[in-house]
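Dear Dr. H.,

I hope your travels went smoothly. While you were away I took the liberty of generating a structure for the chain from your last submission, since the lab meeting agenda had it listed for discussion. I wanted you to have the full record in hand beforehand rather than looking at slides cold. The sequence, exactly as received, is reproduced here:
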Amino acid sequence: MSRSPSHWSTRNGATIVGSTATTFRLDLVPDSGTLVRIDDGIETAFTLTAEFQAPRDFPTVVADDAGGALAMGWVERPEGGGMIIAHFAAETSESPARAIVYGIGVTQIELLEPTYTVLVIDGDHFTRKRIADIALQP
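The corresponding predicted structure, in token form, is as follows:
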């Protein structure tokens, strides 16, 4: 089989439609890695923040509606480990592409949502919280 951005072709030339969902790729290069958002074959690259340059595993990543991405992962720092969320904002006519990193004060995050919210385990149920509300102040 050969592959095009969202279709597979069999040896007989028959086309099989694949997923058209947004996907992500990490290109890890020392000190200059990128997070690549792929929308139907179109790639948008974001420079990885220092926190994601050497991940322990692939971070949780979701696409936002503005062409960017949110990534969440556990990182080890000299002052100790902790959860972070990075907002990789796409370039617009008003601003360049950029990344904003938030230290997170909770570790029981069950779901990262594209609306800049998370579902947090709260006892025997879940609570939706805005990332801005659980971010640690610098």
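Two observations you may find useful: The CA atoms of residues 1 and 10 lie 5 Å apart. The first strand starts at residue 2 and ends at 3.

With kind regards,
E. W.
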